[in-house]
Task: structure prediction
Amino acid sequence: MLAVDRIDLHYGAAQALKGVSLTAEPGQVTCVLGRNGVGKTSLLRAVAGQHPVSAGAISLDGAELGSLPPYERARRGIAYVPQGREIFPLLSVRENLETGYAPLPAKDRSIPDEIFALFPVLRDMLRRRGGDLSGGQQQQLAIGRALVMRPKLLILDEPTEGIQPSIIKDIGRAIEYLRERGDMAIVLVEQYFDFAAALADSFAVLDRGEVVASGGRDELAGTDVRRHLTV
Result:
């Protein structure tokens, strides 16, 4: 579904990504691993259309995305849950979820029941302001907002960062459920190795803007992968 083909990305004169390739298939979780500052978020921003690539190509369902802006990519089925969540603190939980309606035709503008099945706390807090939620609850809200869009591709940037263990387990179960549904590709950026290893069908490790290791689930447990995650 997603094909990233040898992309470069620059911030001014600084090169953040060098010849990075990645694929993601429906019904699978592709994990992108690496230390801070190696280009993981830059890769996701490139896929979501938030920063242009300098070379290479990104395709979804065989169609090259080119220079399409983020809102057009959202209409094509790409949902991005950014690092730091970026929910709207002054809007209610319901209103935050409803912002996911933006790329949808009018007939699809409803909140799927499965979001409340995955994250029951959101149903209980629909009238609460987003900014009044805990960090873990805000993360669930950010994922729920993305799922309102009915995405083909769900991109998650470090969803476990700063989250309490009980909610990490809830997020892991939600990702497993979405994978088993079989109609969505998931790209997961993580530094928490055990969380990634439990979910990954395939992986790519970034270091200094380049893919230095990649493979399937069975190869992820290798010590060489861990070496690229330790400081």
